[in-house]
Structure formats: C-alpha cells, structure tokens
Amino acid sequence: MLTLAADIEVLARFGRALADPIRCRILLTLREAPAYPADLAEALQISRTRLSNHLACLRDCGLVVTVPDGRRSRYELADERLGHALDDLRAAVVAVDADRTCPDADEKECC
Q1: Which end of the chain is more exposed for a tag (fewer CB within 10 A), N or C?
Q2: Taking 90 as the threshold, does the pLDDT of residue 22 lie above it?
Q3: What radius of gyration, in Å, describes the C-alpha atoms of the chain?
Q4: Out of 23-27, 54-58, 80-84, 101-105, least confident range
Q5: Where is the HTH arsR-type domain (predicted)?
Q6: Closest CA to 23 of 62, 45, 51
Q7: Over pLDDT 70: what percentage of the chain?
Q8: How far is it, in rounded angstroms, from Cα 10 to Cα 8?
Q9: DSSP state of 103
Q10: What element of type H or E holds 41?
Q11: CA–CA dist 51, 19 (Å, integer)
Q12: Helix, strand or coil for residue 110?
C-alpha cells in the first residue's frame, strides 16, 4: 500500500505527463492500440525527433513501455489500467466543465 507522499508523487507524475497536449495525444493513441514510433509520428503529424522526446518523457514517467518486435520496438501503455484511467479522467473533466482552460496551459514541463 502506498503512503500519502507516494500517492501524491504518482499523481503529480501523471499530471506532468498529461500537461503537454502532444503527450496526451500519444497516450490516447496508445490507448487504442500499441504503435511503432514511425506510425505514431505520422498519425500525430509531428517529427520523429519531437515524438522521441515525448516518448522518453512518458517512459521516464512510467506510463509507456517499449516492446521489442524483431529489429523494431513498439510502444504501448505500461498498464492497461492507464487506458481506463484516461477514459475516466476525460469523462470526469467533461462532466465538471469542458469549457474551462488551465491558466498554466502554456507551460511545457516534462516529468
């Protein structure tokens, strides 16, 4: 069982990962199915370098993992419960007030 301090750290790490729209898009895409970096970059219409930086952040946060597949590696959510958590969080935020914006929305901080 986690302590309150550990719970806070885990939630803060998750929040930092979600603070960037590209990382949110990556997580939501991986919620649907695992993907290779080239396919993710194309789907999200971002450079592979930029994607790589965001994937490194999400790996460091413990939210995604790489799975070797021959010479390639694909990415997937570290735990299937993350997909459910993303769905629940999205539904909860929309239920509260979908039209609000965060005053710190322009800050770009990684884990």
Answers
A1: N
A2: yes
A3: 15
A4: 101-105
A5: 3-100
A6: 51
A7: 84
A8: 5
A9: T
A10: helix 37-44
A11: 15
A12: coil
Average pLDDT over residues 30-36: 96
Two tokens at 15? 């929040």
**DSSP code string of 53-91:** HHHHHHHHTTSEEEEEETTEEEEEESSHHHHHHHHHHHH
Left, alpha or beta for 91 (phi > 0: left; psi -120 to 50: alpha)?
alpha
Planar angle of CA 104, 18, 48, nearest 5 degrees: 110
| Burial of 85 per CB tally in 10 Å (0-12, 13-18, 19+) | middle
Q: State the CATH architecture for 15-94.
A: Orthogonal Bundle (1.10)
